[in-house]
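BUG: 3D viewer hangs when loading the predicted structure for this chain

Environment: internal workstation, default settings.
Expected: structure renders.
Actual: progress bar stalls at 90%.

Input used:
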Amino acid sequence: MSRLGVLLVDEERRWPAAPTGARVRPYTARHIAKALQIPVVSSADWEPEAAEVYSHGARKPRKFESSGLLRGYRASAAAIQSILGANQAALAPTNGGHA
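C-alpha cells produced before the viewer hung:
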C-alpha cells in the first residue's frame, strides 16, 4: 500500500535545447522516484502563464482550459483519488464479512 507519492512539475520546456535540438532534462520521473524511493504519482506541465491564474489571480490565457497544466492537474487529481480509494479499501476493517 502506497501512502506517499510525488507530484512532479515537468519543467521540460524550461531547459535549453542541446545543439542537436534535443531538450536536456536533469532528472526524469524515473530518476526522481528511484532517488526518493517513492512513486511519482503524476506530473503537470511547466506553464507559468497558466499557473499565474492560480498564484497571482492573472487573467486566463488563451486555451487555458485545455492547457497542459490543467490536463496535468486533472490527471493528478484522478490518480490521487484512485490511490486514496485503494488505501481506504485496504484500511477498512474486516469483521468476517459483517459490517
